[in-house]
Request: fold
Amino acid sequence: MKLHPSVMQTALRYCGVRDPEDPLWKSRMEELADSIDEYICFHYAYRIYPISFQDGQPYIRQKKPKRLPLEGELARTLLSECTKVVVIGATLGLAFDRQLRILEKQNPAKAICFDALGSALIDRKLDDLQDSILAYLNDLEGWDASSPPCFFTDRFSCGYGDLPLSLQKDFERMLDLQKTTGIHVLDSGMMSPTKSVTALIGISDYPQPARIRGCAHCNLSSSCPYRKGGTVCHV
Ligand code: SF4
Reply:
């Protein structure tokens, strides 16, 4: 499988490798990348929900229960200009976990690389999915000069920052994740298969700063009021 160069670089970073050109690590990664496709069965589900705010704190509007609070400063900040959210669940599937367990017994160094490749790969697949959802929504809105497009916030996951991990159980129910993707949320809050992610993306009528991914990913970079004032919008 030809992996995007950014996947390899991210995987090397997850392994703590400083030099992405290190020949030993690079060849290990390339060897695993060649066959990783055999162990990937990417499944995903997503739904779009309206959100409202109480005292500045967002909550998802749905039928049962009527309100799902999105607690914490992260959701409050990222969603402050949003009217809807995309709730996503996605996984690389169980075959990846099986192969990881085999490698852990046979060759622990390879297992570390394989694990890192899986983490980098699911992130990349979610980036691609996010791009296609945004393109679909803007297409649906019939975007032209007179009707502004919609914009996404950064994607953020349960357990990241102060977004509660317990929300994963709600997302499992809302997206029927067991049936649609094979994802099970365990009582501990972890998920099976291990390379599974649940996430939120805010939808706004206004361009959104890249508060998590940083200025290099921000569509406001050329007109940023923060940077003009010598500061940034993120930590
Ligand atoms: S500081 Fe400006 S350019 Fe950087 S992420 Fe925030 S809004 Fe975007």
